[in-house]
Amino acid sequence: MTDFKDVMGKFVEFEPQLVLLDIVLPFFNGFHWCQEIRKISKVPIIFLSSANDNMNIVMAMNMGGDEFIEKPFDLNVVTAKVQAVLRRTYEFRGTADVMEWNGAILNLADATVLYQDQKLELSKNEFKILQILLENTGKIVSRESIMTRLWDSNEFIDDNTLTVNVARLRKKMEQIGLGGKIITKKGIGYMVEA
């Protein structure tokens, strides 16, 4: 990794199965990035660092790290520890699914949005609306197709119900600096721009 300003963007883009972190990094330290990753994923994190005093080791574990390997290290030891962490992690669980959009991260596992260190809890309908729009970024999604996915039943659903849900979602998104991101296309539907 070379761009240490956009660690979370790269994390979401590549969806790694394992993260190796040093404590000393440009812009933000490894503790910061470990905490940010833990907000959206349970991917195993191994710290590799020469900053190996007890305080740093304890902090690495408390921030969400799974292992700490001191530099200089023997490659065979690192390989064995990586294999052990991967075996323990992926025998029982996988990583959380996320969608990234313009710096915002939608966590599909817990229906939250993370943007500029702010976490937003979404209702079931708000979450589904945002997920549908993000799956179709840059395209208009018709009101009918959103309503079909939200309320998959033969019962009549008032058209106003979708309008109310979108309004609530917009209001919540404004609170964390994402106002104006859901665009209404009169008589057609909604969209988010790429």
UniProtKB/TrEMBL annotation:
Domain OmpR/PhoB-type: 96-194
Keyword Kinase included in the entry's annotation: no
Its job: May play the central regulatory role in sporulation. It may be an element of the effector pathway responsible for the activation of sporulation genes in response to nutritional stress. Spo0A may act in concert with spo0H (a sigma factor) to control the expression of some genes that are critical to the sporulation process.
Protein name: Stage 0 sporulation protein A homolog
UniProt keyword list: DNA-binding, Phosphoprotein, Transcription, Transcription regulation
Modified residue annotations for 4-aspartylphosphate: D22
DNA-binding region in chain numbering: 96-194
Gene Ontology terms, MF aspect: phosphorelay response regulator activity; transcription cis-regulatory region binding
Signal peptide: none
Pfam short name (any one): Trans_reg_C
Domain Response regulatory: 1-86
Xref: InterPro entries: CheY-like_superfamily, OmpR/PhoB-type_DNA-bd, Sig_transdc_resp-reg_C-effctor, Sig_transdc_resp-reg_receiver, WalR-like, WH-like_DNA-bd_sf
Record GO biological process: regulation of DNA-templated transcription
One of the record's GO cellular component terms: cytosol
Top-level taxon in the UniProt lineage: Bacteria
